[in-house]
Amino acid sequence: MAVKVRIPTPLQKLTGDKGEVEVQAADIKGLLESMEKNFPGIKARICDDGGKIRRFVNVYLNEEDIRFLKQEATPLKDGDEVSIVPAIAGGSK
Question: pLDDT at residue 93 above 70?
Fold first, then answer.
């Protein structure tokens, strides 16, 4: 299934400076594996050593946080859009 993935600016150097890529996958876990195959090193930036999405990385399927769906087992269908959004920390005094 063809899924569009929006890549955040800090990870675009791994995708050849592309802000969007298309991936074939049945679920989020498969999407991450496919992205790693096509863009080596990207999975390590998104997932921890156990293969789980890092807590400071948010992944949205059609604007819905996958943490409230089935997380890495969230199924995908043709035409879905996945956004990878790193959390931003900071503030002022």
Answer: no
- Range list of β-strands (E), 1-93: 2-6, 20-24, 57-61, 64-65, 81-86
Asked whether 22 and 4 are in contact (CB, 8 A), the reply is yes
For the CA atoms of 31, 34, 39, 44, the dihedral, rounded to the nearest 10 degrees, stands at 60
- Read off the pTM: 0.88
Domain architecture of the chain: domains with CATH: 2-86 (3.10.20.30)
If you average pLDDT over residues 21-47, what whole number do you get? 96
Report helix, strand or coil for 5.
strand
- Using the CB atoms, write b or e for 15-43: b if 16+ within 10 Å: beeeeebebebebbbbbbebbbeebeebb
With a CB cutoff of 8 Å and minimum separation 6, the contacts of 47 are 32, 53, 54
Give which of 47, 41, 45, 49 is closest to 16, Cα–Cα. Answer: 41
